[in-house]
């Protein structure tokens, strides 16, 4: 079972890239972020023709998340993180696919920090932490997948010293990520590639991709009851080199089907 996450940076503008990648890799579940499209403008028909059922929470501007399932319909469980009824930003979806609860998330950027946007980021991450703790407590096989907008360690940035004051790398953001790991969630990519410099995002400016001046901010975290099924994890880095592509590359995990293995 392959589960992938992809900050598509505009689902309509990047639709040819998305469809090409889906045809090439055929993931079973896909979490998309930064749709940049209101609810009625999600390209559901094109996604369906590609062989995927979908649920989505659209929104103008920079937000919006979606989940695709190959040959199936994701069974929606939750739309939006609990804990703040006044938060109307489309950043979180939960659905069940093949016995796994998949949470698609798009965490706030938080810049400039300090400031109100950073305060919102930390409050949102605290709510995510509480929801994640509930999933661990109930022994739910789950994946937290998406753009966390967090650089967890110095290994995850091309030149970490340049990010010291950025919301993505501030101690408070990194502590929120570490708190999830302390609950028992497994950082799939890093756990299988502990010493490699692997990036998932390269800015459009300053020739960042050819120089490999990137960041690792897109993550898939596996719950304790799911982590033993991890077989492989990687980044489809080549997609970042396609024409008119996103500034992120897709990230994926491969899981054994339930009942397989030892």
UniProtKB/TrEMBL annotation:
Its cofactor is Mg(2+); Mn(2+). Residues 4-248 form the Endonuclease/exonuclease/phosphatase domain. The keyword Hydrolase applies. GO terms for molecular function: DNA binding; double-stranded DNA 3'-5' DNA exonuclease activity; endonuclease activity; metal ion binding. The record marks 149 as: Transition state stabilizer. The record marks 248 as: Interaction with DNA substrate. The record marks 218 as: Important for catalytic activity. The active site is at 106, 147 (proton donor/acceptor), 248 (proton acceptor). Keywords: Hydrolase, Magnesium, Manganese, Metal-binding, Plasmid. Probably binds two magnesium or manganese ions per subunit. GO terms for biological process: DNA repair. PANTHER family: EXODEOXYRIBONUCLEASE III. Belongs to the DNA repair enzymes AP/ExoA family. This is Exodeoxyribonuclease III.
């Amino acid at each position: 079972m392959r589960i992938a996450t992809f900050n598509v940076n505009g689902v309509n503008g990047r639709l040819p890239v998305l469809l090409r990648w889906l045809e090439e890799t055929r993931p079973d579940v896909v979490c998309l972020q930064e749709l940049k499209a209101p609810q009625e403008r999600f390209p559901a028909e094109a996604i369906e023709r590609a062989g995927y059922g979908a649920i989505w929470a659209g929104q103008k501007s920079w937000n919006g998340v979606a989940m695709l399932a190959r040959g199936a319909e994701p069974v929606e469980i939750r739309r939006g993180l609990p804990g703040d009824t006044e938060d109307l930003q489309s950043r979180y979806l939960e659905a069940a696919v093949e016995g796994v609860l998949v949470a698609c998330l798009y965490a706030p950027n938080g810049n400039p920090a300090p400031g109100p946007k950073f305060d919102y980021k930390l409050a949102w991450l605290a709510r995510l932490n509480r929801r994640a703790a509930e999933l661990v407590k109930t022994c739910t096989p789950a994946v937290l997948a998406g753009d966390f907008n967090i650089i967890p360690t110095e290994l995850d940035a091309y030149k970490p010293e340049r990010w010291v004051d950025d919301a993505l790398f501030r101690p408070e953001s990194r502590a929120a990520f570490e708190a999830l790991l302390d609950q028992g969630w497994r950082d799939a990519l890093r756990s299988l590639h502990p010493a490699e410099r692997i990036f998932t995002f390269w800015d459009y400016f300053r020739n960042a991709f050819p120089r490999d001046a990137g960041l690792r901010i897109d993550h898939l975290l596996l719950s304790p009851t799911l982590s033993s099924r991890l077989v492989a994890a990687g980044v489809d880095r080549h997609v970042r080199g396609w024409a008119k592509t996103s500034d992120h590359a897709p990230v994926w995990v491969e899981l054994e089907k339930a009942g397989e293995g030892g």
